[in-house]
Amino acid sequence: MSHNWKNILIAPNSTIQQALKVIDSEALQLALVVDESNRLLGTVTDGDIRRALIQEKPLSLQVFEIMYKSPTTAPYNTPRGELLKLMEVKELSSIPLVERGVVVGLETLHKALHKNVYSNPVFLMAGGFGTRLKPLTDSCPKPLLKVGDKPILETVLLSFIKSGFHNFYISTHYLPDMIKDYFGDGSKWGVSINYVHEESPLGTGGALGLLPKDLPDLPIILMNGDVLTKVDLEALLAFHNKHDADATMCVREYEYKVPFGVIESDGYQIKSMVEKPTQRFHVNAGIYVISRKIIEQVNNNEVVDMPTLLERYLDGKVLIFPFHEYWLDIGRLDDFNRAQIDIKTLGMN
Question: Which range marks the domain in which residue 59 is found?
Answer without folding.
Answer: 5-113
